[in-house]
Design a protein that fits this description.
It contains 19 helices and 24 strands. It is α+β, with helices and mostly antiparallel strands. Bound molecules: adenosine-5'-diphosphate (ADP) and magnesium ion (MG).
């Protein structure tokens, strides 16, 4: 029985052209996708030398008949689409019919396979694209493909391969993430005799995250319970008017990290569309938006987001490696993803503790952290000793671990009487529900379900029970450290407040409130300040001139490349006004106009607050400190500044007593 056919030229020409075999991980990706498309319940991958010497992938999928096995190595031979119309609704991972011939052209490849309709299996050998041998052989149903000596006949490309461990790292990350997207299937990845991943089928992605990443990481993630929204179909392909009214159901689910997890790059953000791993700027933006004012601008969360959408609403025929997609209704998808994450964060209400004094951090904990780092890092190979086989759930992973460069530790090893540098990596960021809701659209439904999930998750983050749920109103200031940090006490312990960021928070919320009520006041400058703008700044200025004036600015064009600031927001001193304006314009320019009015307002508010706030190295009178602490306590989100940095550290009474060995 033959299912593979060669696509007519007209169809083949419509397929995004380009090379897909760049490195061992791209071979693994194509072969793995083929196995999944073949309906495999079990996929096993074995590697040697980071895949450079050997990649062997075995599946229990549908297999291929003798004729199909031969046909599969022709260009544009596929069983997955037939006509150009099929390109508009691709439900399989593959469809280009190019992977097998491309891989076979640059390696020594062996295929062993059998389709259920045939009694004998087929074995064939191809080297550098030339068929060397075909024969019958006994074979269980399914397919095994062995790819040896990648790029043996193209030395120039071989030279560009990275070290074994780098290539292995890429493959490990890839397989791990396909495993996360397909919890109902089993995956195994071995490098020489090292077992890197071994997971058996489980009921849902939560259990799969547990298998793959361990309890520790799972506890640091917030569930995004499956949410559904109806999406209006804007451009139904080739349909008449009737269906213009139609809508499609889109589903988002997944996991995102609590704010205290801060990664230095985007490598831990994974986004799946119909279980296909893709990179998408739009979604990265939606995720950043969801964390706005929760995480500082230069750090990133961990995120696994699964989007399910009717195949006709997403175009995967954009890039040869199929890692980019185009949504027909991208605005809807962006907002839905952003809102779902926001809602998950609000429901979980992560409340975090500040750096715990840890007299002797347990070794186990350190290992766990290193492991989390290890598993999340794209650049680091996830190598570890053999894991127990069997259920695959087994005890938590063990073995040598390499902390990833981008990983920041969850909590500090000891309490320090100075602000940790850099602050975001040791302070933990609590998350005020009110602050989140202030900017998030009202959550649609399902809060009860998520509350339950949240209550299961929160406690452990508050290790030692000393997390702060609220900023106290009864703090008494004692003095300042270096004229920068206010030291204060109450019955709960000793507190240190960064005076600049605390004031920033107070001013930020005040400014936004005034802006909402259209009551932001400006202060006329004695002398207008003339500012010279770059062309980008000028373009940004034209875009946001109206919003600037609603924020207390009076700025007018003055000559060709210059503007004159006549009035600045009331709290901002004259000498800060120029820097503030330039900062806002640069910020807008960088976001390439994609910025919404809502986030523009937040940005301006944060900038104004920053420039108007009390600076560090500034002596404060006691009454001023008292005022600041009181005002901070009245804000919606007192624990972080508008840029997401922590405002306070606390040394809890219990920790103090413990440190003095009184308890
Ligand atoms: P595509 O996946 O785009 O169709 P490929 O070159 O990757 O193109 O594969 C060609 C065809 O070979 C597939 O359409 C499929 O029918 C068949 N095939 C490839 N790998 C497998 C596999 N592991 N099990 C069963 N069939 C396979
Ligand atoms: Mg394929």
């Amino acid at each position: 029985m033959s299912v593979i056919h060669i696509l007519p030229e007209a169809v083949a020409n419509k397929i995004a052209a380009g090379e897909v075999v760049e490195r061992p991980s791209s071979v693994v990706k194509e072969l793995l996708e083929n196995s999944l498309d073949a309906g495999a319940g079990r996929v096993e991958i074995a590697l040697e030398s980071g895949g450079k010497r050997l990649i062997r992938i075995t599946d229990d999928g549908c297999g291929m008949s003798h004729d199909d096995a031969l046909l599969a190595f022709e260009r544009h031979a596929t069983s997955k689409i037939r006509s150009a119309d099929d390109l508009f609704a691709i439900s399989t991972l593959g469809f280009r019919g190019e992977a097998l011939p491309s891989i076979a052209a640059v390696s020594r490849l062996t295929l062993e396979t059998r389709h259920a309709s045939e009694s004998a299996g087929t074995r064939l050998e191809i080297a550098g694209g030339k068929l060397r041998d075909v024969k019958e052989q006994a074979w269980a149903q399914g397919t095994r493909i062995e790819v040896r000596d990648l790029f043996f006949n193209t030395p120039a490309r071989r030279k560009f391969l990275k070290s074994e461990s780098t290539e292995l790292g890429h493959i490990a990350t890839l397989v791990t993430h396909y495993a996360l997207a397909h919890p109902e299937r089993s995956f195994r990845l071995n490098s020489f005799s090292n077992e890197i991943l071994n997971v058996s089928p489980v009921a849902n992605s939560r259990e799969r995250v547990y298998q793959v990443m361990g309890k520790q990481l799972l506890e640091q993630l917030v569930d995004i319970a499956p949410l559904e929204r109806r999406m209006p179909i804007t451009t139904p392909p080739d349909e008449d008017e009737e269906s213009a009214e139609a809508s499609a159901v889109v589903r988002v689910s997944g996991f995102v990290s609590r704010p205290e997890i801060q990664k230095l790059n985007r490598n831990s953000i994974f986004f799946f569309v119909n279980r296909r791993l893709v990179r998408d700027r739009l979604i990265l933006h939606a995720i950043t938006e969801a964390y706005r004012n929760i995480l500082p601008g230069n750090v990133f969360p961990v995120a696994l987001i699964f989007l399910e959408i009717p195949a006709a609403e997403v175009d995967v025929n954009v890039h040869p490696s199929k890692t980019e997609v185009r949504f027909r209704n991208s605005g809807f998808i962006h907002d839905f993803v952003r809102d779902s994450i926001r809602q998950g964060l609000v429901a979980a209400q992560p409340v975090a503790a500040f750096p715990m004094p840890k007299v002797a951090p347990s070794k186990r904990r350190e290992e766990d952290e290193a492991e989390v780092a290890e598993k999340l890092s794209e650049e680091t190979p996830t190598m570890r000793g053999p894991a127990p086989s069997g259920t695959g759930r087994g005890p938590e992973p063990r073995g040598p671990a390499i902390p990833a460069p981008g990983f920041s530790r969850l909590d500090a090893v000891g309490f320090r009487l100075s602000a940790p540098q850099p602050a975001p990596t040791t302070g933990s960021l609590p998350l005020g529900k009110a602050a989140l809701e202030m900017y998030a659209p009202p959550p649609p439904t399902e809060s009860a379900q998520r509350k339950e999930a949240a209550s299961e998750q929160s406690p452990d983050v508050l290790a030692g029970g000393s997390g702060i749920s609220e900023f106290p109103a009864d703090l008494q200031p004692l003095g300042q450290v270096q004229n920068s940090f206010i030291v204060a006490t109450n019955a709960a312990g000793l507190w240190i407040i960064d005076q600049h960021v605390a004031h920033e928070r107070v001013l930020f919320e005040h400014h936004l409130r005034m802006r909402r009520e259209k009551r932001v006041e400006g202060q006329r400058l004695l002398m207008p300040i003339i500012v010279e703008l770059t062309p980008e700044q000028q373009a940004a200025f034209q875009d946001i001139a109206a919003e600037l004036s609603s924020n207390g600015f009076e700025v007018e064009p003055f000559g060709q490349r210059t503007v004159a600031i006549k009035t600045a927001p009331a709290d901002v001193r004259a000498e800060e006004a120029e820097r503030l304006l330039v900062e806002i314009l640069d910020g807008v320019g960088k976001e390439a106009r994609a910025i919404s009015i809502e986030s523009l307002r937040l940005k301006i508010g944060a900038s104004v607050a920053c420039h108007a706030a009390i600076k560090i190295n500034m002596p404060l009178e006691r009454s001023k400190m008292q005022w600041l602490l009181r005002e901070l306590a009245r804000t919606d989100c007192p624990m972080t500044c508008p840029h997401g940095r922590p405002t306070v550290l606390r040394y809890g009474l219990k920790e103090i007593q413990k440190a003095f060995k009184r308890i």
